[in-house]
Amino acid sequence: MDWTFLKHIDIDIQGRILFTNDTDYWQANSFRFIFQNVTTFFKLGGEDVFIYGGGTLDGNGQLWYDTYAADIYTLRPVLVGIDGLRDSILSDLVLRYSPQYYHFVANATNVVFNNIDIAGGSTSKNLAKNTDGWDTYRSKDVTIMNSVINNGDDCVSFKPNSTDILVQSLFCNGSHGISVGSLGQYVGEFDIVEDVYVANISMHNATDGARIKVWPNTPSAMSGDLQGGGGSGRVNNITYDGMVIDNVDYAIEITQCYGQKNLTLCQEYPSPLTISNIVFKDFTGKTSTKYQPQIGAFACSSDTVCGDITASTINVLSPNGTHEAYCLNMDQSTLDVTCTSTWLGFN
Known about the structure:
Blueprint: E1 2-12, E2 16-18, H1 23-29, E3 31-32, E4 39-40, E5 43-52, E6 56-58, H2 62-70, E7 77-78, E8 80-96, E9 103-106, E10 109-119, E11 134-137, E12 139-150, E13 156-158, E14 162-173, E15 178-183, E16 190-204, E17 208-214, E18 220-223, E19 226-228, E20 232-248, E21 250-255, H3 263-268, E22 274-287, E23 294-299, E24 306-317, E25 324-328, E26 338-340
Parallel strand pairs: 1-5, 2-6, 4-7, 5-8, 6-8, 8-9, 8-10, 9-11, 10-12, 11-13, 12-14, 13-15, 14-16, 15-17, 16-20, 17-21, 20-22, 21-23, 22-24, 23-25, 25-26
Antiparallel strand pairs: 3-4, 18-19
């Protein structure tokens, strides 16, 4: 369904909408985007659209998780696909078992998501991968608030050209954190993420709390269907204000070596993407045992691309009571952690 023509309309969703898991049908009939193999069941766009009602959208994801495990080139639809939506609100909705992201918010302006209940997971040995709560892309003035997310990838991810974003009062469980990026994936593209404010987040059982992830300036691969590196851009004016950390691998992670296991290669081919005016403040809690004694990683590709990065009132400890973080090409005087040059890995 192409609903990008909607204007001045209310949609009251009651009951449960279950999407078919006919994987062959959706390979041919889903809506394709140009970014990261994204496809969607439907496209929602237009202006002055209000969707609410307490009903459930169920992506029927289990067969997708199993199919993707057998063939990573299977195109898995996003549950809620947005393209060109303006001046609209989605609220009081339940989302379950998306085959891929729960929301892909593209080319949107002035859109609010409020009181969204997201949950899913796999009942087989095959994980529900890439089930981000929200991914914003080429969008501005987006608000995401007062929601609960139980998923298996980024709780929220700000993809290229996301600006003026507010995220507040979320409960995230099982995720990869509130993430800027990944950025710099495509050669010749200039990615921008700026003017983002993230506040009052409760992060549980996650790989990361606050995260900035950038591809290096050399070809790299997370997997056969996710490769990149060599792009540029800027990350500017990002604030993470208040986060509770509970069994999270890294409370804070900045990396410009995303998708690349060879740290030396990342230093030989540093990303040109700049990261500036970044604030992390008022973090509390305890990390997992994965990287202890470290609670975070602050790593830039060179000392010329990062500046004005501060971390204050970081009251987060590892299980053994330490407060260390890996620091590379950073002004350590502005970081409320005990910096070390020992690298234990990136997520």
